[in-house]
Amino acid sequence: MNDDARPAPEPQDMPPHSGSADEVKRQDPSRRSVLWTTAGVAGAGLGLGALGTGTASAAGTAASEPASVAAAAAAAPARKGRTMAGVRFEKRSTVRVGIVGLGNRGGSMIDLFLALPGVQVKAVCDPVRDKAERAAAKVTAAGQPAPAVYAKGEDDYENLCKRGDLDFVYVATPWELHFPMAKAAMLNGKHVGVECPIAMRLDELWELVDLSERTRRHCMQLENCCYGKNEMRVLRMAHAGLFGDLLHGAGAYNHDLRELMFDPDYYEGPWRRLWHTRLRGDLYPNHGFGPVANYMDVNRGDRAVSITSIGTPALGLAEYRKEHMPPGDPSWKESYIGADRTISLVQTAKGRVIRLEHDVSTPHPYSRINSLGGTRGVFEDYPARIYLEPANTNHQWDDFKKYAEWDHWLWKEHANPPGGHGGMDYLMIFRLMQCMQLGLVPDFDVYDAATWTAPVPLSHLSIKAKGAPLPIPDFTRGEWRKARSGVDSEKPGE
């Protein structure tokens, strides 16, 4: 969630190719310096159809035949390694971390890494040297040795990833850099955790899956909303059968970001706003999709099989620009195509339906919707309310606070966790570092990362195909049929 470091917009109480690292630099065109102009981003944004071919011609195919492109992506390529489902971390007493990206998100998350025992921040990286040096000062202020600083241009993260004293690389950078950075980390033998979304293209998602399996390194989407208090309570209740047989759920990222996207001091350049000049679909599905996928055991007994998306006209950003930006501002050269509100319906193998929404361009109170319904009742968030039989029979919402006994052990153990977003950031990092220290299976893996991110390119293609349902690839290659643990974990030692 690399857009929410500023506290005001959101309430705080809401709940592969060859193995050489050098190839990352040779093949990846998605450098931030290229993507800072509208002209420079046009080709990269349409590269949705390069399904492992790496050819520019595939971009044209994606624009003209979205349904055929998505169908091709759904066909799983031959596995090049072994599954990473259920694979434990190597046990270690100390986790040595390198952090790439020290802006709004990374600059705040470093505090949480430093707050955890048995975690050392060994290296920091950002092309803006002042940010990297401020982060390094936090490390020494926490009593740790001074970390190595990598601030020599856009590609210095590759040198960080080559270090021999790192176990885990954390990536919090503009979206177009997530894929090459995750790739570089795994090619250099590091586990990697990436902020949302993990990549922007279907071929990139498949490559991250293949690379994780080949290198035996976990590649995780750090989906912090999965660790929200309400989300974890609903998760445990769903798995205990309180909702009966699950039928439907909904999740969203409805968050008015207009002011922030036009604020020259908030983001490092206009990278986030520029995505609205390239894609029409759901640019940020993970916060809504991840929790509901957990409720329904997606990739752990069920799977997402198709998506259909529609979108409104793109008016909000242009209207905001007209009212707030002076003549001559670079933003006046931008043409926005991203739908102000995108609505997607995801069907699962068991016939369940998940509704996803995305809207960051119009006035709206913050909401992730976060609902779940089954044969015994329904939960809806924002505000939190519940209706379950046999307790509720009067057609009146009940108080969700009555169900505090179902809180996840993480929330019982950490009643008032530090950090942003009501503590979910801290619990996500705490749990991940705990799994690495104890040699446990991570709560989510590369298959979850790819599935939760697939709506980014697929919703764009579905909208271009006038709402046609498109297949979602089975990134697990059949492993989804096997029940296994996830975020609804048992407390270690119990």
Can you list the strand order of the major beta sheet? 13-12-11-7-10-9-8-14
Q: Label the overall shape.
A: globular
**First and last CA, distance:** 32 Å
Number of helices: 18
Report the mean per-residue pLDDT as an integer: 88
Task: Supply Rg.
Answer: 21 Å
Strand-residue proportion: 5-15%
The assembly state of the depicted protein chains is single chain
Amount of helix? 25-40%
Low-confidence stretches: 1-64
Written overview of the protein:
- The two termini are 32 Å apart.
- Helix 5 (104-115) runs parallel beside helix 6 (129-141).
- The longest helix has 15 residues, at 424-438.
- With 494 residues, this protein is of the alpha/beta class.
- 33% of the residues lie in helices and 15% in strands.
Secondary-structure blueprint:
Blueprint: H1 22-27, H2 38-45, H3 57-64, H4 66-74, E1 95-100, H5 104-115, E2 119-125, H6 129-141, E3 148-150, H7 157-161, E4 168-171, H8 178-187, E5 191-194, H9 202-215, E6 219-221, H10 229-239, E7 246-254, H11 258-261, H12 271-274, H13 286-295, E8 304-311, H14 316-324, E9 342-348, E10 353-359, E11 371-374, E12 377-380, E13 385-388, H15 409-413, H16 424-438, H17 446-453, H18 455-464, E14 470-471
Parallel strand pairs: 1-2, 1-4, 2-3, 4-5, 5-6, 7-10
Antiparallel strand pairs: 7-11, 8-9, 8-14, 9-10, 11-12, 12-13
Helix pairs in contact: 3-4, 4-18, 5-6, 8-9, 9-17, 10-13
